[in-house]
Amino acid sequence: MTTPVIQAAHYFANHNTENMTPRMVPIPGFSAKWLGKTTSNRCKAICKLLKREQLALNDRHGEIRLRLLDTQHHNQPDLIVTQPWINGAPHDITHIIIVENKDTYQAIPTTEHAICIFGSGHAATRIKTLLPWITTTPHIIYWGDIDADGLEILSELRQTGIACDSILMDSTAYKTYEPYGTKLNTKKQPLKTRDPKPTPGLTQHERNLYEQLCTGKNTTYLRIEQERIPINDAMTILHNQHQWNTTHHK
Question: Which of 70, 100, 218, 234 is least crowded, fewest Cβ atoms below 10 Å from its Cβ?
Answer without folding.
Answer: 218
